[in-house]
Amino acid sequence: MIRHKLFSKGEYINVLITNNRYSNIVFPVKAIIHDIEFNDKMPRYQIRIVKFYDDIDFLKRYMFDMKFDRNFEGGHTIFRISRTNVPSVKELQNYIDTKWETFLIVVDSVMCVRTYDELNELQNNIQDFLVEKSIRDLYELTTRSTYSKGKYYYESRGVFEAHIKKFLDKRAGTQKDYFDKLLYRPLSIDYDNLE
User: Fold this and answer.
1) Which residues is 68 bridged to in the sheet?
2) I need a labelling partner for 44 at 20 to 30 A (CA). Which of 68, 110, 132, 173 fits?
3) 167-190: pLDDT as tens digits
4) How far apart are CA 189 and CA 178, in angstroms?
């Protein structure tokens, strides 16, 4: 049963686009639906970007030369554009508009919403998850016993937690067990109980 919002061909939507290789980088855009594929899992939309919400520096750093799904059969769209030829988002949009057929992208319906406010909420939820995952990864990297002579080594979780509390200040969650969940590291026996 499909539980995603369904949109029609020709409809304007707001979308988070990403690719499989760098799924931790999402680009919020406004788009028009060019084509739709329905399957038993979720609908997918082939979109044409009509507006970028990121600044040009971010787009040049991360989107240029990145590969995206182009059609439902597996083709690819690559934003292979000279960075010096597009000094602004407006210039980038003008360039893409002149060759829009070559810049079509396929997205899953879960990354599509109707309004900009919904897009902003979706992106913030994803970014919060990615930041928390990065903090957890940093904790894992800096507290390994084999790294004890490393520059960024933390001897205990308590010291790491104190520094993270100071860093996050009022941005940290207010739940009593916020840091327990944030820095959770399962014991090896916990992996044997996975189903």
Assistant:
1) 77
2) 132
3) 988 888 778 888 888 888 776 666
4) 23
